[in-house]
Structure formats: structure tokens, C-alpha cells
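About this split. The held-out portion is used to measure sequence recovery: a designer receives only the C-alpha cells and must propose an amino acid at every position. Recovery is the fraction of positions where the proposal matches the reference. Here is one held-out target exactly as it appears in the evaluation file.
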């Protein structure tokens, strides 16, 4: 998903991780993927700006 942030006019990519039951916490795999994205620095990989749960 793409979205345009109103505060910054920056176009951002959104990724929603789903669990089997919405009330469950993230799986270990999801947390591992988030950790990798936070550490990744490459021109072809988007930079993680924020993460929220809700």
C-alpha cells in the first residue's frame, strides 16, 4: 500500500502484518522480519520510519 503523509507530503509504503487472530501478538517470524528491515541499509530497500501496533 502507498500513502501520502499529510504532515510531510512524503509518500510512504505501508505493510500490515496479520496474525491468525487479530488479538494475538506478532509471531517470531514477523518480529525477525521487522528487525531485519530496521537494520537494512540499501538503496533498493525502503527505510523503516515507524512501527505501530493497533
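Reference sequence for scoring:
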Amino acid at each position: 500500500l502507498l500513502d501520502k503523509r499529510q504532515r510531510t507530503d512524503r509518500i510512504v509504503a505501508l505493510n500490515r502484518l496479520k496474525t491468525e487472530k487479530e488479538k494475538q501478538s506478532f509471531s517470531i517470524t514477523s518480529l525477525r522480519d521487522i528487525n531485519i528491515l530496521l537494520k537494512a541499509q540499501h538503496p533498493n530497500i525502503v527505510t523503516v520510519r515507524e512501527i505501530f501496533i493497533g
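Annotator remark: DSSP finds one helix and two strands in the chain.
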